[in-house]
Every structure is written in C-alpha cells, then in structure tokens.
Amino acid sequence: MTTISLTSGQILDIISALEEKENTFYDAGDKHTAAYYMNLGNQFQRVYDSLQDFVPENRVANLVLAAN
C-alpha cells in the first residue's frame, strides 16, 4: 500500500497544471486529450472541495493506492 499526502495548496497547484494541459490540447484541436485532463482536474477539484469541510490545520488529503 502506498500513501501520498497533499495539502490543499498542493491540490490547487495540481488543478492549475491540469487546466493548463487541458487548454494546450484544446487549442491544438485535440479535444479527446483535453477532456481527459479536464476529467482529472475535476477529480482533484472534488478532493479539494471535500477538504474545505476541515479546519485549515487539518486540510490534508491522504491518497492511498491499495493493490489486490
């Protein structure tokens, strides 16, 4: 099992980077890849939104990869 801890600020940085990639591919006419990056950004946005329910000191997302 692998765990990655991300602060809310780091998640915002990831969302911003994904939006830049999305825009780059969209402008290049590759709408399929742009949609892929948009969906990734939406997933991180949901994680970020969930963190807003916590007090600022505890706004850390622990992402866990568990293999069967």
Short structural summary:
The protein is an alpha+beta fold and 68 residues long. It has two helices and two strands; from the N terminus they run βααβ.
Structure description:
This protein has 68 residues and is an alpha+beta fold. Helix content is 60%, strand content 18%.
Provide tags for this entry.
globular, alpha+beta, 2 strands, two-stranded antiparallel ribbon
Strand order of the largest sheet: 1-2
Q: How many angstroms does the end-to-end distance come to?
A: 10 Å
Tally of separate helices: 2
- Residue stretches low in confidence (pLDDT < 50, at least 5 long) are none
Class by alpha and beta content: alpha+beta
Overall form: globular
Query: Which percent range fits the helix content?
Result: 55-70%
Cα-atom radius of gyration? 14 Å
Structure summary, number of beta strands: 2
Layout of strands and helices, then pairs:
Layout: E1 2-7, H1 8-27, H2 31-51, E2 60-65
Antiparallel strand pairs: 1-2
Helix pairs in contact: 1-2
